[in-house]
Write a structure and sequence with these properties.
globular, 154 residues
Protein backbone atom coordinates (compact mmCIF):
# COMPACT_ATOMS: atom_id res chain seq x y z
CA UNK A 1 0.00 0.00 0.00
CA UNK A 2 1.27 3.44 -0.89
CA UNK A 3 0.16 6.43 1.19
CA UNK A 4 0.61 9.96 -0.12
CA UNK A 5 -0.13 13.06 1.95
CA UNK A 6 -0.32 16.39 0.16
CA UNK A 7 -0.56 19.48 2.34
CA UNK A 8 -2.28 22.46 0.75
CA UNK A 9 -3.22 25.52 2.81
CA UNK A 10 -5.85 26.50 0.22
CA UNK A 11 -7.95 23.38 0.89
CA UNK A 12 -10.91 24.01 3.22
CA UNK A 13 -11.93 20.37 3.81
CA UNK A 14 -9.82 17.22 3.87
CA UNK A 15 -10.38 14.96 0.88
CA UNK A 16 -9.33 11.31 0.73
CA UNK A 17 -9.03 9.40 -2.53
CA UNK A 18 -8.52 5.66 -2.58
CA UNK A 19 -7.11 4.16 -5.77
CA UNK A 20 -7.25 0.40 -5.94
CA UNK A 21 -7.41 -2.46 -8.41
CA UNK A 22 -10.55 -3.85 -6.79
CA UNK A 23 -12.71 -2.89 -3.81
CA UNK A 24 -12.18 -5.77 -1.42
CA UNK A 25 -12.88 -6.34 2.28
CA UNK A 26 -9.74 -4.47 3.37
CA UNK A 27 -10.77 -1.36 1.38
CA UNK A 28 -14.28 -1.47 2.84
CA UNK A 29 -12.79 -1.77 6.35
CA UNK A 30 -10.46 1.16 5.67
CA UNK A 31 -13.40 3.31 4.53
CA UNK A 32 -15.33 2.36 7.66
CA UNK A 33 -12.39 3.34 9.87
CA UNK A 34 -12.02 6.68 8.11
CA UNK A 35 -15.75 7.46 8.31
CA UNK A 36 -15.86 6.60 12.01
CA UNK A 37 -12.68 8.33 13.10
CA UNK A 38 -14.59 10.78 15.33
CA UNK A 39 -16.77 8.01 16.79
CA UNK A 40 -13.61 6.48 18.22
CA UNK A 41 -13.09 9.64 20.28
CA UNK A 42 -16.61 9.74 21.72
CA UNK A 43 -16.85 9.76 25.47
CA UNK A 44 -19.49 7.99 27.52
CA UNK A 45 -21.34 10.23 29.97
CA UNK A 46 -22.42 8.37 33.10
CA UNK A 47 -23.83 9.21 36.52
CA UNK A 48 -22.79 7.50 39.74
CA UNK A 49 -23.79 8.60 43.25
CA UNK A 50 -25.03 11.97 42.00
CA UNK A 51 -21.83 12.82 40.11
CA UNK A 52 -21.48 12.96 36.33
CA UNK A 53 -18.43 11.29 34.80
CA UNK A 54 -16.90 11.51 31.34
CA UNK A 55 -15.58 8.02 30.54
CA UNK A 56 -13.33 6.86 27.75
CA UNK A 57 -15.27 4.27 25.73
CA UNK A 58 -12.38 1.83 26.14
CA UNK A 59 -13.06 1.73 29.89
CA UNK A 60 -16.53 0.31 29.25
CA UNK A 61 -16.96 -3.45 29.66
CA UNK A 62 -20.61 -3.43 28.57
CA UNK A 63 -23.91 -1.56 28.63
CA UNK A 64 -27.01 -3.18 30.09
CA UNK A 65 -30.66 -2.19 30.36
CA UNK A 66 -32.37 -3.11 33.62
CA UNK A 67 -35.89 -1.92 34.52
CA UNK A 68 -35.94 0.59 31.63
CA UNK A 69 -32.67 2.20 32.76
CA UNK A 70 -29.37 1.81 30.94
CA UNK A 71 -26.16 1.22 32.83
CA UNK A 72 -22.51 1.28 31.81
CA UNK A 73 -20.20 -1.17 33.58
CA UNK A 74 -16.49 -0.57 34.06
CA UNK A 75 -14.00 -2.57 36.12
CA UNK A 76 -14.58 -0.41 39.21
CA UNK A 77 -18.02 1.11 38.90
CA UNK A 78 -21.52 1.13 37.44
CA UNK A 79 -22.85 4.31 35.85
CA UNK A 80 -26.34 5.17 34.70
CA UNK A 81 -26.33 6.55 31.16
CA UNK A 82 -29.03 8.61 29.50
CA UNK A 83 -29.20 6.63 26.27
CA UNK A 84 -31.27 3.65 25.19
CA UNK A 85 -29.41 0.62 23.82
CA UNK A 86 -30.47 1.39 20.23
CA UNK A 87 -28.97 4.89 20.61
CA UNK A 88 -25.72 3.38 21.88
CA UNK A 89 -25.70 1.04 18.85
CA UNK A 90 -26.16 4.03 16.53
CA UNK A 91 -23.53 6.17 18.28
CA UNK A 92 -20.94 3.38 18.32
CA UNK A 93 -21.75 1.68 15.01
CA UNK A 94 -18.66 0.17 13.37
CA UNK A 95 -16.70 0.30 16.63
CA UNK A 96 -15.87 -2.48 19.08
CA UNK A 97 -19.38 -2.40 20.59
CA UNK A 98 -21.83 -5.17 19.65
CA UNK A 99 -25.27 -6.15 20.89
CA UNK A 100 -25.17 -9.66 22.37
CA UNK A 101 -28.68 -9.86 23.82
CA UNK A 102 -31.88 -7.81 24.03
CA UNK A 103 -30.47 -6.06 27.07
CA UNK A 104 -26.65 -6.00 26.62
CA UNK A 105 -24.12 -4.35 24.31
CA UNK A 106 -20.57 -5.56 24.94
CA UNK A 107 -17.19 -3.98 24.22
CA UNK A 108 -15.47 -6.71 22.18
CA UNK A 109 -12.07 -5.29 23.12
CA UNK A 110 -12.77 -6.23 26.74
CA UNK A 111 -13.83 -9.85 26.08
CA UNK A 112 -11.11 -12.20 27.33
CA UNK A 113 -12.64 -15.54 26.27
CA UNK A 114 -15.85 -17.21 25.13
CA UNK A 115 -17.20 -20.71 25.45
CA UNK A 116 -20.26 -22.39 23.95
CA UNK A 117 -23.14 -23.41 26.20
CA UNK A 118 -25.48 -26.38 25.66
CA UNK A 119 -28.52 -24.31 24.67
CA UNK A 120 -26.81 -22.47 21.79
CA UNK A 121 -25.78 -19.49 23.90
CA UNK A 122 -22.19 -18.54 24.60
CA UNK A 123 -20.61 -17.45 27.84
CA UNK A 124 -18.22 -14.51 27.56
CA UNK A 125 -15.63 -13.82 30.22
CA UNK A 126 -14.64 -10.18 30.39
CA UNK A 127 -11.07 -9.12 31.09
CA UNK A 128 -12.02 -8.41 34.72
CA UNK A 129 -13.34 -11.98 35.17
CA UNK A 130 -17.04 -11.08 34.99
CA UNK A 131 -19.17 -13.48 32.93
CA UNK A 132 -22.06 -12.49 30.66
CA UNK A 133 -24.20 -14.51 28.26
CA UNK A 134 -24.45 -14.05 24.52
CA UNK A 135 -28.01 -14.92 23.48
CA UNK A 136 -28.50 -17.61 20.86
CA UNK A 137 -29.88 -15.18 18.24
CA UNK A 138 -26.76 -12.97 18.55
CA UNK A 139 -24.09 -15.72 18.55
CA UNK A 140 -23.69 -15.78 14.76
CA UNK A 141 -23.05 -12.03 14.50
CA UNK A 142 -20.72 -12.18 17.51
CA UNK A 143 -18.65 -14.97 15.92
CA UNK A 144 -18.52 -13.10 12.62
CA UNK A 145 -17.40 -9.87 14.28
CA UNK A 146 -14.57 -11.52 16.23
CA UNK A 147 -13.61 -13.85 13.38
CA UNK A 148 -14.39 -17.31 14.75
CA UNK A 149 -16.43 -20.20 13.41
CA UNK A 150 -16.58 -19.05 9.81
CA UNK A 151 -15.61 -20.92 6.66
CA UNK A 152 -11.95 -20.83 5.82
CA UNK A 153 -10.84 -19.67 2.39
CA UNK A 154 -8.80 -22.17 0.53
Amino acid sequence: MIVNIIENSNIKETKINIECNKTDESIIKLISIIKNINKNDKKVIGISRGETYCLDKNEVLYFETVDRKTFCYTVDNVFEVGMKLYEIEENYEDTSFLRISKSIIVNLNRVKSVKPELDGKMLATMDNGEKIYISRQYVSEFKKKIGIGGKKDG
